[in-house]
Amino acid sequence: MSTKHSSNNTAISLNFAVTPLPEFKKELGQDWIKWGADNLYSDHLIDLYLKSPRHGAIINGKVDYIIGGGLSFDKNSLSVEGQAIAENFIEFFKSNNCLGDIVRDGELYNGVAVEIIWNKKKTKPVQLIHIPFGRLRTNEDETKYYYSKNWKTRIQDEDTGFKEFDLFDANNPQDSQIFIYKIKAPVKNNQFNVYPTPNYQSGVIAIESDIAVGNFDNSNLNCGFTASSIINFNNGIPATQTAKEEIERAVKSKGTGADNAGHVFISFNNGKDKETTVTTLAPSDLDKQNVEVDKRVEQRLFTTHKITNPALFGIRQEGSLSGDNNLAKDFELFQSIYIDGRQKWHEEFINEMGFYFGVTTTIEFKRVAPIKESIPDAIVQKVYDAYSIEQLVDILGMPKVLKSELVQMKSEDPLDIFSKYGRKKELFEIIESKEFIYTNNDEVVISEFLFANELSSLEKSILDLISKDEKISIQGLSDALKEDTKKIQLIYYTLIENGLLKVDKNNIQTITESAAKILDGEKVKTKNYEIVYGYDWRVGFSDKDKKTSREFCKDLMAKDLLYTRSEIDSMSNEMGTSVWNFKGGWYTKPDTNIHLPYCRHTWHQYLIKAK
After folding, report:
1. What pLDDT is attached to residue 603?
2. Fewer Cβ atoms within 10 Å of its own Cβ: the N or the C terminal residue of the chain?
3. Closest-CA residue to 73 (of 95, 94, 89)
4. Which of 209, 196, 219 is nearest to 54 (CA)?
5. What confidence tens digit (pLDDT) does each residue in 370-386 have?
6. Dihedrals phi, psi of 596, to nearest 5 degrees
7. CB atoms < 10 A from the CB of 538, how many?
8. Can you name the residues that pair with 535 across neighbouring β-strands?
9. Which 3 state secondary structure label does DSSP give 508?
10. Rounded CA gap, 269 and 137, in Å?
11. Bridge partners of residue 561, in order along the sequence
12. Phi and psi for 411 in degrees, rounded to 5?
């Protein structure tokens, strides 16, 4: 804000400036370069993120799309030790939402930073910690970085958390160093090009306008008075300049438009019966003009962020329908023009760090599955009830060969297939059971491990076998314990991560002192547990509901069979559909119009052992 006074009249003009582009200049008497004229431009970017609902939603959405399904790597070409190293490295990013913080910094600033901690002998890095990029400043040759929680003050000490970092150098390890990754943009002459520029920099004014539009609406609601006015104080001229300035500050703080922005003209007079008058300079339909401004601001925001469809970020536009038929195509376009590139940028940063941690494979983001336009289940059920498979094949124009296969599948009795597999439940002692919801095969494996691990001594059994044979392989453990290889592999990595097992470069395995204490004095006996699945009542239902159940469900439950995961896979192959998702149909709650897309039965997971 600037203020103009004149000794020859009593008028005061208040002007409010637009945020200028950031400047990168040397801080007088300090080693670091200022990030913005006041050294607080990174704080300004955070304010934009927090105060603009649309900008904030877009940033958050981009972060989610970039992270996708998290980090992964190809295990097929790695040794056991190599897999363990890669898993441990990824664990750094899982802890305390480190990956989310890093990707968010990338979207806010176009820069990311982590502190790398070396071991005591300085032979290899052992830990990494995310550092908020906005709290960093650097010198002109970018060899030093300075951290502070508060760059508003010139005095940097323990109170501000001030810390100095050396740039990461694998050939000159220190106790801790900082690893920086950033994208810089051209700057004006006589400036130090040391800080990144966000991808949305060209739209900063649009984001500020988005905030101002919101503040304008809020100001109208709270104050009922908008700027762009002449205020005439007709009760005399204040005796001193200080008195004038006090009135000026009061008007500025109470009466000016969007977050005290705009232009106000204040005049002190001796007339008009000493009554204060206000002359409005702005048009009376300013609220309508504001709507048009908001539309232009919104379009500029979407252009800045390369948004193909605002619905991808939960932003509804006026006149749009909730079901957007182009959403899938727009998602694929946005993935290709923006997300793919940003994922690769972060992957380069992660893999460059991974190299120094001994990772010998490429770590990548699991891509988000494309959005699929789907028909609601209720409509599918109604179509299924109204037409035969033969009619649907003709309506949809399917090939004749597919038609015959579908008709043949319909003619087969699924109950016959279920009867070919499984073992009677009465042959086993059921240790524990719970309802099971299928998502994918990997989740089945993890679920089986977690379910059994709560009750068995499988981890202890693995440690016990390794203590007796330091070269035993994962396959050997699987064979000895009669457990699935993936399950053993998952437990194996968990033991390494928890500091109970060590593997050297020659694949020699040793249990740690902590593990030895766990096993000390306790002879581990491997329990002959097994994970199986059976068809049973959902929670809230029982045999009293049998009379109204469908014939298939009643017949299958009467057989009282338990199936292994591999048997369920075999049945799925024979039926040509997923047995996990095979359901009797829709269930209508009695005395209501509530329809549920499943019946009263579901798969249960059982932990059993032979009687």
Report:
1. 83
2. C
3. 89
4. 209
5. 555 444 444 455 555 55
6. -110, 140
7. 16
8. 603
9. coil
10. 51
11. 424
12. -75, -20
How many C-beta atoms surround the C-beta of residue 412 within 10 A?
A: 12
User: CB under 8 Å to 406, separation ≥6 — which residues?
Assistant: 389, 390, 393, 398
Instruction: Determine the length of the chain.
Output: 611
Q: Whole-angstrom Cα distance, residue 85 to residue 79? A: 10
CA distance linking residue 127 with residue 138, whole number of Å: 23
pLDDT the model gives residue 386:
57
Which residues are within 8 A (CB) of 580 and not within 5 positions of it... i.e. 6 or more apart? 438, 568, 572, 603
Tell me which residue has tokens 């009760």. 235
Distance CA 125, CA 203 (A): 39
10 Å Cβ neighbour count for 276?
11
- Which pLDDT score is estimated for 529? 65
> Which residues have a Cβ under 8 Å from the Cβ of 105 and sit 6 or more positions away?
111, 112, 113, 130, 132, 133, 134
d(CA 316, CA 434) in angstroms, rounded, equals 41
CB-based contacts of 94-100 (< 8 A; 24+ apart in sequence): 94/70, 96/130, 98/128, 98/129, 98/130, 99/67, 99/70, 99/71, 100/63, 100/67
Distance of alpha carbon 177 from alpha carbon 115, whole angstroms:
6
Residues of the chain scoring pLDDT < 50: 1-17, 225-227, 254-262, 281, 319-324, 373-379, 400-411, 446, 449, 452-456, 521-527, 584-589, 592-598
Domains of the chain by range and CATH? 2-18+205-289 (no CATH), 375-411 (no CATH), 412-440+528-611 (no CATH), 457-526 (1.10.10.10)
Residues 6 or more apart in contact with residue 93 via CB below 8 angstroms: 71, 99, 102, 350
Cα 364 to the chain's mean position, in Å? 15
Instruction: Kindly calculate the radius of gyration of the chain based on its CA atoms and give it in whole angstroms.
Output: 34
Question: CA–CA separation, 316 vs 55, rounded Å?
Answer: 14
CA dihedral (198, 204, 210, 214) positive or negative: positive
Site of tokens 């001229």: 237
Exposed, middle or buried: residue 156 (CB in 10 Å: 0-12, 13-18, 19+)?
buried
Q: Are strands 229-233 and 264-268 parallel, antiparallel or unpaired?
A: parallel
Written as one letter, the residue type at 189 is N
Which of these, 340, 388, 382, 386, lies nearest to 364 by C-alpha position?
A: 340
Helices 98-109 and 340-356, packing angle to 10 deg = 120
Torsion 535-539-544-547 (CA) sign: negative
Q: What is the pLDDT of residue 522?
A: 44
| pLDDT of amino acid 454 | 41
